[in-house]
Amino acid sequence: MKRLFPILLSLLSLLPLTTRAVEVEHLYSASVMAVGNQTNRDLQKVAFAEVLVKISGNATIATNPVIKKALLRAREYLVKQAEERVDGERYLQASFNEQKINRLLRSSEFGVWSQNRPQQVLWLVVDENFSRSVKGENDTDYADFINAIKAQANKRGIPVLFPIMDLDDQLKVSSSDLWGQFTDPVELASTRYAADNYIIAKIIKQNDDYQLNWSMYGRSNTNQPYEIWLNGQGQGELESIGIALTNNLANHLGERYSVKASGNNEVVFLNVDAVTGITDYAKLIEMFSELSAVAQVDLEIVSGSSIQLKLVLLGTQDDLLTELSLDQRIQSSENALGDMNFQWNATN
């Protein structure tokens, strides 16, 4: 069988293939509330802009000249829409064509971020009234901060969890661990939430004002320790600093994981073992077809339960491996010669 290109093999040894991502649903849909006398056509543009931000991971995409023109033609990308009223407010729910949006983004040199997205868990510690405490998902005093992050994360299409802070969490992570950013216990506790990355957020309450400092930790290699990928700070009301944190997080992840068309149409051959039947084969082909880095996937060779795929790439080999690292259905293995192969994990 043909072997995977050597460059891809060397890159593979640097990337994890066992992390846990989340398949984010409804990325090509948005629900927007009417303000004043906005027409459905106005709301279609707003919803379309929200979808473009979710798919590209770029918060400023609407300022691009090509995208500006596309927003004026939002109706051409529309698949379906529906109106509803909630608490007296009018909402428009709109869904848009996935293929058309992906072509638009790639033709305007933006990336496409697939639905497999890394899971974040956010640990919040608060300093107020001369004491420090860890706040979990259901905390009422800091609900404005927590709910703002959840809502904005949903709007940006990124999975963010807060720990429940039951006895199990309390025994593993203390306020002093978080305040001092002692990461060992935080990393251990984060595995419970199947987190790819974690955030430590520290809030100091000052009268009716709040000061926030936070750090995001991630790793590109399962053989390396977590490191700080991003730092941020803010001051103001709980809702506003929560939204700002989420936007910074989403912008960073979008830049890291979205795939831009390279224009090279590079071809690679990839071996996959443990493909035991037509059902596995169909799911495998479907999975590779949905990757943002892949333009075309074809079956090259079948040998028992091993197959070789020929992939034409939209992005780069790095993009392909980064996407595969977020999918639990593919695992890596190394043979006696040091060559790396992929294995289909049918249980996921």
Question: What do you see in this structure?
Answer:
The protein has 348 residues and is an alpha+beta fold. The protein contains 12 helices and 16 strands. It has helices spanning 6-12, 40-56, 65-72, 74-77, 98-107, 143-156, 167-172, 175-179, 183-190, 238-257, 278-289, 317-324, and strands at residues 21-23, 29-33, 78-86, 89-96, 116-118, 120-128, 131-135, 160-161, 197-206, 209-218, 227-236, 267-273, 294-303, 306-313, 330-334, 340-344. Strands 6, 7, 8, 9, 10 and 11 form a 6-stranded mixed beta sheet that branches. The chain has a 5-stranded mixed beta sheet with strand order 13-14-12-16-15. The protein has a 3-stranded antiparallel beta sheet with strand order 2-4-3. Strand 15 and strand 16 form a beta hairpin. Helix 6 (143-156) packs parallel to helix 10. The longest helix is centred in the last third of the chain and has 20 residues, at 238-257. It starts with 5 loop residues before the first helix and ends with a strand.
Task: Produce a short descriptive summary.
The protein is of the alpha+beta class and 348 residues long. The protein has twelve helices and 16 strands. Helix content is 34%, strand content 31%.
Shape: globular
Biggest sheet: strands, sense, closure? 6 strands, mixed
Computed Rg: 22 Å
Report strand %.
25-35%
In total, the number of strands is 16
Structural class: alpha+beta
Q: Which H/E pattern describes the elements?
A: HEEHHHEEHEEEHEHHHEEEHEHEEHEE
Number of helices: 12
**Helicity level:** 25-40%
Taking pLDDT < 50 over at least 5 consecutive residues as the criterion, the unreliable ranges are 1-19
Q: Roughly what is the average pLDDT, rounded to an integer?
A: 89
For the termini, the CA-CA separation is 27 Å
